[in-house]
Design brief:
78 residues; alpha+beta; 2 helices; 3 strands; 22% strand
Amino acid sequence: MIKGLTEVNKIFKVDPNVKFEYYEKNRPLSEVKIKELQNSLEESNLLNINPIIVRKVKVNGVVVYKIVDGQHRNEAAI
């Protein structure tokens, strides 16, 4: 570890059966954008450089994972 730096995030590979929820205020999903990203992921998978950001939250007492950034990338990857 480099002096003065603290680890704050980790990257995980998620089982395909895990489902994420989206925030209602996120922009609507675009099928065109998803298709563009699918093609991009096939050419060069850069999800390790530009990962999908999720947040663990409680909804009605149940823990769920909501996508903060990357809902189109998530749809393209599944």
